[in-house]
Design brief:
It comes from Candidatus Competibacter phosphatis. The chain is mainly β. It has one domain. Helix content is 0%, strand content 47%. Strand 7 (93-98) and strand 8 (103-109) form a beta hairpin.
C-alpha cells in the first residue's frame, strides 16, 4: 500500500484553522510532501518526508507497529524539491521534482532505508508528478510533470 499521508508548507506553524494549542506532529521542518511506502521491504509502511525548505529528503523507517526510527536527512532532492512519488515496477524507484534545479530525479531504495540517485533529466520547473495507467496498453507508465 502506498499513500500520501500529509502535506504541509511549514511544519513549525499550525494551520490558521487549527485550535490555538495545536502543534505540528510532523518531525521534519519545512516539509511539503510525505509519502508512505514500504521502502525497506519489511512489510511495514515507512515515511518519506520531502523538505522544500531544507532541500532534503528524510526517511522514517517503521521498525515495529507505529514505531518509527529516523534516518539522517539526505541531499538527493536538489534545490527546492516538491513531491516524491513511487514509480511502477520492481525494484522500487521514486521520482522527485527538483523544481529549483529544473530536473526530474529518480532514486532507488536501499535495504538500509537510504535513497540513492540513479538518474536525472532536465525538465523546466517541474511542480508535481503523477503515475498514470493506459488501459489499452495494459501497463503503468512513469511520472508526468506538471508545470507552472
Amino acid at each position: 500500500m502506498v499513500g500520501i499521508v500529509a502535506v504541509a508548507e511549514d511544519a513549525t506553524t499550525p494551520p490558521v484553522s487549527a485550535p490555538p494549542d495545536a502543534q505540528s506532529l510532523l518531525p521534519t521542518q519545512g516539509v511539503i510532501h510525505v509519502l508512505a511506502d514500504d521502502i525497506t521491504g519489511n512489510g511495514r509502511l515507512d515515511l518519506i518526508f520531502t523538505s522544500h525548505n531544507n532541500n532534503e529528503i528524510q526517511v522514517y523507517q517503521q521498525v515495529a507497529p507505529r514505531h518509527f526510527e529516523a534516518h539522517d536527512p539526505q541531499a538527493v532532492t536538489g534545490f527546492h524539491p516538491n513531491d516524491t512519488i513511487v514509480l511502477p515496477g520492481t525494484p522500487k524507484r521514486y521520482l522527485i521534482n527538483a523544481e529549483g534545479e529544473g530536473k526530474l530525479k529518480v532514486v532507488k531504495a536501499q535495504p538500509d532505508g537510504r535513497l540513492e540517485l540513479i538518474s536525472e533529466r532536465a525538465q523546466p520547473a517541474p511542480r508535481a508528478s503523477t503515475p498514470f495507467f493506459l488501459a489499452r496498453l495494459g501497463s503503468e507508465l512513469g511520472g508526468s510533470a506538471i508545470f507552472r
